[in-house]
Amino acid sequence: MDQKNDMKDRQEAKKRTIELVDRWHKQAEKIKKKHPSWSEEKVQNKMKKIIRRQVQQDIRIKDFSVKEMFEKRKKILVYRQEALDKTLNYIFSKNPDAIGAAIFELDCGCMRICGVAKTGEPAGDMIMVLGNPKNEKTGIQECEKCNLDGGADPDRCVNKAMVWPGAESEMPSKDVRLAIGKKVFGEKYSINDI
Ligand SMILES: [Zn+2]
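Above: inputs. Below: predicted complex with zinc ion.
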C-alpha cells in the first residue's frame, strides 16, 4: 500500500473512531436517563458490555485504547464549553444591542456564533470558534474542513440554537424569543426550540 493510501486509511479509521466514541457517549447518557438510580459503576459496566460488542464488530478499533479515547473526548468537550462561554461573553460585552446569540454547530465540531438584536438582525460579526483545541504535538489549532470551506456550507450544520444570556427571569418573553428564532433560523423554528 502506498503512503498516501495508508494515511487516508488511518484518517478514515480515526474518523470512525471519533464517531463511535460519540455514539458511546450518547448511549451512556441514554442509560443514565433511563435508569437514574443506577450508580456510575453500573452504567460503566453496562457500557463496557455494549462497547465490547461493538468493538468485536469493528476490528480497527482494537488499535485504540478506549480509556484514552474517552479522556480525549472529555477534554474536547470541556474545551468546547469553555470556548463557547468565552465567545458568548465577548459577544455580549462588545455588542450591547445583542439580546441573544445564534449558534450554528458544524459536523466538524466548530461553531459559528453571532449576536442577535431584538429585531432579529445580527448584532456584531459572525465569529468562528474552532471545535478542537490546539494539537499538542504541533501546537497548531486548525480544522481541515473549515480551512477548505470557511465553515459556511449550510449542509454541514448539524445543530442550530439560540442562547440568551443571564438568568431565566432576565430572558425576553417566549413570544419575543420565538419571533427572533424564526427570523434567524426560518419558519420551522418552533416553541419547542426556544
Ligand atoms: Zn471545522
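The mean pLDDT is 86.
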